[in-house]
Amino acid sequence: MIVFSDLYYDMHYLRYRKGMSGWKRLLWWMPGILMIAYTIGLASIKAFAPQDVRWLNVYLFLVGILLVPKFVMAVCSFLGWQHCKFHHTQKNRGNLIGPVLAVVAAGAFLYGLTIGPRRLEVKHIDLYFEQLPASFEGYKIVHFSDSHVGTFNHNMDNCLRRDIDSIKAQHADLIVFTGDLQNVAPEEITYHSDWYKELTNGGHTKVMSIMGNHDYSDYMRGPRKEMDARVQKHEALQRSLGWDLLLNEHRIIKRGKDSLFIAGEEWEAKEADDTTNYVNRVKTYAGIPQQAFVITLQHNPLYWEDHLVHGQGIPVPQLTLSGHTHAGQISLFGMRPTMLSYKEDYGLHQLEGKYLYVTAGLGGLVPIRLGTTPEIAVITLHRLKK
């Protein structure tokens, strides 16, 4: 993006303009050179991303005002130039269209950087099951995911405060968190740990959680001893919030004579992925009766359908709650980038009477949202009368 734009304008316009000395052309290249240096600096961070996300925010802002408009105009001009060559015309209409599209693109980018991540939608979903135990009619679950709290620290604290208050306002029977509490380091959690503790309502509200790919040390490499220590610190911090962290294990929730099971799986990945596989499904579901009503928490929704079809004797959950995709963070005309790699990348999905809900999440390492609003899902369970 950086090199193409500057190189195109330099080769097609600047070098042919009268009075355009080498120094003036260098000034044209200077913002791009500085952005390349900034990019290299961010890419060289050992921790995968800066712990102070303000460095990333400044970088993205500069991309929006410097690189995006220039790139859009260069592409339009290039296409117009090719059109002129093919049709043997002189007027490059790309130079007329380019500035308009550049303003639109820059405006959309800056909206996605400044306003989009600060919005919130509380989505209410009613689900009906024949197998739901009678005592759990109307059972309310608040599902949130992908807080990426480091993105809120120092920058969007008021938004996180609003999100916590919105969760509390639902007066749920159960709150579940499906992974990615941090960006890269457990220290991020300490800034607002007191706010997250409020979700338990002094121990009166159950909060169950699992870990996502960012909660492990796969993105912050180092000696195995250090990586394991970071994971253990993260686990300890989650438990210090009063949350019941499920690491390939399950819990029984009882109401009267009835019960249901919450199964918490660790991060699941295949050999081709760039992260480690931590899931142990045999351990997670050991002891759960085949006919039990099971709600599964799994950060990654990618393998949901495979597990329904190839259960291998493991109880099949009636409801699976996931996150991870952030609904692509960008959606244009209903098209999201995550749709290319995830069949169920966002929203409610049903297969053979079993449900999967993939939430858009609250945050993201890269704080951009355009067409996909951060959300909290309020899921109410109902018994379907036969």
Automatic annotation (TrEMBL):
Residues 140-327 form the Calcineurin-like phosphoesterase domain. Keywords: Hydrolase, Membrane, Metal-binding, Transmembrane, Transmembrane helix. The keyword Transmembrane applies. The chain crosses the membrane at residues 26-49, 55-81, 93-113. GO terms for cellular component: membrane. GO terms for molecular function: metal ion binding; UDP-2,3-diacylglucosamine hydrolase activity. GO terms for biological process: lipid A biosynthetic process. The keyword Transmembrane helix applies. InterPro entries: Calcineurin-like_PHP, Metallo-depent_PP-like, Metallophosphoesterase_sf. It comes from the Bacteria. This is Ser/Thr protein phosphatase family. It comes from Segatella baroniae B14.
